Amino acid sequence: QVQLQQCGAELVKPGTPVKMSCKVSGYTFTSYVISWIKQTTGQGLEWIGYIYPESGSTGYNEKFKGKATLTVDKSSNTAFMQLSSLAAGDSAVYYCAIGWARFAYWGQGTLVTVSS
Amino acid sequence: DIQMTQSPASLSASLGETVTIECRASEDIYNGLAWYQQKPGKSPQLLIYNANSLHTGVPSRFSGSGSGTQYSLKINSLQSEDVASYFCQQYYNYPFTFGSGTKLEIK
């Protein structure tokens, strides 16, 4: 069955970057877009952007341009999201999900905590 | 950005009841709407897409309706496993945006 396995929680210092992973299985990795979504208690759910694994083409929410960078490694069926210059407002659970516009399957989420 | 206003913010209902959650978009989204269920400590799960199409494996007691700017999710015969938060999401226009959620509890 379709599975998206995300990496474990990260505790990072302000100003530093973090790179998280999303390893997929149960389908052909290059067939479907992978999207990333941020969830916080205060802001709710926010769509960050998507990547098409076959071509590497990406699309971003303007709010996250310059903050998030999406990449893939086709050899390992893994998608990555790097967040730059982390600040307190970047503390959240980050999900990867299959789909460009609506999200049919989700990973379990990666909790990122930004703290000195 | 299209704003999605969801109501109510919380809801308490009895087992077997029918509940309805509303979502209003700030402009016409032409049925580009999905509903998700998020159980405590879990990731969201797709229930409904294109406003009224049931995702694979979702029980038929869930249904979606609406058009234009007004949409709703109905849950018939409420079950204990339906305790969760529910979110709407528009995908008619970039950036895709979500409602703030409805927390459903059993009375």
This entry's quaternary arrangement is heterodimer
Order of helices and strands of chain A: EEEEEEEEEEE
Task: Let me know the number of strands of chain B.
Answer: 11
Compute the number of helices of chain B: 0
Quick one: overall form of chain A? globular
Shape of chain B: globular
In DSSP terms (H or I, runs of 4 or more residues), the helix count of chain A works out at 0
Nearest-angstrom radius of gyration of chain B?
A: 13 Å
Gap from first CA to last CA of chain A: 40 Å
Number of strands of chain A: 11
Order of helices and strands of chain B: EEEEEEEEEEE
Outline the low-pLDDT stretches of chain B: none
The chain pair with the largest interface is: A-B, 18 and 21 residues
What is the arithmetic mean of pLDDT of chain A? Answer: 96
The residue fraction in helices of chain A comes out at: under 10%
Q: What's the topology here?
A:
The complex is a heterodimer of chains A (116) and B (107).
Chain A: E1 3-6, E2 10-12, E3 18-25, E4 34-40, E5 44-52, E6 57-60, E7 68-73, E8 78-83, E9 92-98, E10 105-106, E11 110-114
Parallel strand pairs in A: 2-11
Antiparallel strand pairs in A: 1-3, 3-8, 4-5, 4-9, 5-6, 7-8, 9-10, 9-11
Chain B: E1 4-7, E2 10-13, E3 19-25, E4 33-38, E5 45-49, E6 53-54, E7 62-67, E8 70-75, E9 84-90, E10 97-98, E11 102-106
Parallel strand pairs in B: 2-11
Antiparallel strand pairs in B: 1-3, 3-8, 4-5, 4-9, 5-6, 7-8, 9-10, 9-11
Short description:
The complex is a heterodimer of chains A (116) and B (107). With 116 residues, chain A is mainly beta.
How is this structure best described in words?
The complex is a heterodimer of chains A (116) and B (107). Chain A has 116 residues and is mainly beta. Chain A is 0% helix and 53% strand. Chain A has strands spanning 3-6, 10-12, 18-25, 34-40, 44-52, 57-60, 68-73, 78-83, 92-98, 105-106, 110-114. In chain A, the strands form two sheets. In chain A, strands 2, 4, 5, 6, 9, 10 and 11 form a seven-stranded mixed sheet that branches. Chain A starts with a strand and ends with a strand. In chain A, 36% of the residues are buried. Chain B is mainly β. Chain B contains no helices and eleven strands. In chain B, the strands form two sheets. In chain B, strands 2, 4, 5, 6, 9, 10 and 11 form a seven-stranded mixed sheet that branches. In chain B, strand 4 and strand 5 form a beta hairpin. The N and C termini of chain B lie far apart (36 Å). The model of chain B has no long low-confidence stretch (mean pLDDT 97). The A-B interface holds A 44-47, 59, 61-63, 95, 101-109 and B 32, 34, 36, 42-46, 49, 55, 87, 89, 91, 94-101.
